Amino acid sequence: MKKLYKKNDNTDMSIVEHLTELRERLFIAFFLFCIITFLCLIYTKDISYILQKPAFGIKFLQLAPGEYLFVSIKIALYSGFIFSSPFTIYQIILFILPGLTNKEISYIIPTLIASIILFFAGIIFSYTILVPAALQFLINYGSEIVEPIWSFEEYFNFILLLLFTTGISFQIPIIQILLGYFQILSSNDMLRHWKYVIFISTIISAIITPSTDPITQIFMALAILLLYLSGIFILKILNK
What residue ranges are annotated as transmembrane (predicted)? Predict the structure, then answer.
């Protein structure tokens, strides 16, 4: 007997139909990724200018033949992945939605939407605050001895690492909500361990920030601490 999956319109789906729908959702997500990546490749110069903006006054060099070409492709791929991620998550939501109860929908859908918002908020926070602070320290350190002339590929890797790790670290409230929802940790339990969180946030900020300047690490540690407290506040509202 075939296992059946219930849809919201009260019609049944077999396993084959379920897998067919999954394939269609993945194809749509991949197609949108390709379209957005192609558009990013067309406007890669504009994206490169945006990435270079925090490094004001720095001269970039191409240290190997075709270096900028390969970096342009990487920029397009990473930008396509980031900008297409909301559409991919939307397809995932459409796929899992028929199998969820109303109570599960009331928790999971807002959590996924909040996760997307927090990820992009982390990228914006990193680009506007962390990246300028880190670059300012690196540019000024030893500037009277060496002239700062950087490889664009190495600079892009530096920016990408900082943006991506900050976006991931902004998922802390989402993790807390999931822990509270599954009754693994309550908001009171999290609040009791705030001293350890301060210590851990300092360590995490030192690990995920590629520069060694204290200003960037302090900003990152404060952001992690505020995100942690906001997660507790949300759990208090949800009575978890």
Answer: 26-44, 75-97, 109-135, 155-182, 194-212, 218-238
d(CA 227, CA 240) in angstroms, rounded, equals 17
What per-residue confidence (pLDDT) applies to 1? 39
* Closest residue by Cα to residue 6 from 82, 93, 100: 100
Distances (CA, A) of 184 to 53, 202, 226: 44, 24, 21
Tokens of 213: 């300047």
Angle at 77 between CA 76 and CA 79, to 5 degrees: 65
Residue 197, Ramachandran bin (φ over 0: left; ψ between -120 and 50: alpha; else beta)? alpha
One-letter amino acid of 37: T
Q: Enumerate residues 6+ apart whose C-beta is below 8 A from 52.
A: 58, 60, 155
CA dist., res. 140 & res. 154, Å (int): 18
Phi, psi of 112 (to 5 degrees): -65, -40
Beta strands in the chain (DSSP E): 5-6, 12-13, 59-61, 149-151
**Cα 151 to Cα 149: distance, rounded to the nearest angstrom:** 7
Q: Which residues contact 35 (CB under 8 A, 6 or more apart)?
A: none
CB proximity list for 78: less than 8 A, separation 6 or greater: 160
pTM exceeding 0.90 = no
Residue-wise over 171-184: b if at least 16 C-beta within 10 A, else e? bbbbebbbbbeeee
